[in-house]
Specification:
The protein is α+β, with helices and mostly antiparallel strands and 207 residues long. It has helices spanning 6-13, 22-29, 72-96, 99-104, 123-139, 168-179, 191-200; strands spanning 30-33, 35-38, 43-46, 55-58, 65-68, 111-116, 146-151, 157-158, 164-165.
Length: 207
């Protein structure tokens, strides 16, 4: 799936976009039962001719009543459309809560710098961090334009001097660099902040 936000995804695949919201469906399978003031007659007029002729549905949002006129085939068509929409939503949720997205969310920027601050992680915790970082590099960074890695330490360690263009070779190189980092490196109290400032020093970096 493309690396887009949920709001953008809903603009493409949401119920409203596909004319499957409740109000949109009701307008296609019936008509609203109205009681309104008609200025030309000078009095309220209700569409009472529909009373008893059609099945009716009252919406919970504003209490509007719709007279349902659609045949069974059209109703079943909308049932099928909604079931497909539900399945699509489930797939999106499964995707959002799996692999690197579960930890890092969905990367939407085209040029990023990932700051690595391992703190006082144990060797096992360090390896877990490297696993997660390798995952995000291979799953998401491969879909953007440029990236770099900086490790927060007493002496900052960069993968590259500047963000570099994404390619299979670049990502592979970054993963190898990551796993070759020393498990324990002395860090100063301000090293994390310094690493963040270095990461944001390039005006082309989005995040």
């Amino acid at each position: 799936q493309p690396l887009i936000s949920s709001s953008k995804w809903l603009q493409l695949h949401g119920l409203k976009q596909n004319k499957l919201s409740l109000s949109q469906i009701l307008s296609q399978i019936g008509f609203q039962h109205r009681e309104e003031y008609v200025s030309t007659l000078g009095k309220p007029v209700a569409s009472r001719y529909a009373a008893g002729l059609f099945a009716q549905y009252m919406t919970a949002q504003d209490g509007s009543v719709y007279n349902l006129t659609a045949k069974k085939e059209l109703i079943l068509h909308f049932v099928d459309c909604l079931m497909r929409a539900i399945e699509l939503y489930k797939q999106r949720m499964d995707w959002l809560t799996s692999a690197s997205r579960q930890i890092f969310g969905v990367i939407q920027e085209q040029c990023i710098v990932i700051v690595l601050d391992f703190g006082t992680a144990s060797p096992a915790e360090f390896d877990l961090c490297c696993d997660a970082l390798s995952m995000v590099l291979m799953e998401q960074v491969t879909q953007i334009a440029r990236f770099n890695l900086i490790r927060a330490a007493r002496d900052l360690v960069r993968w590259q001097l500047q963000p570099t263009a994404v390619s299979d070779q670049a990502v592979s190189s970054a993963v190898k660099w990551l796993w070759k980092l020393a498990r324990a490196t002395a860090a100063s109290p301000g090293s994390s902040a310094q690493a963040l400032l270095e990461a944001m020093g390039d005006e082309t970096v989005s995040s």
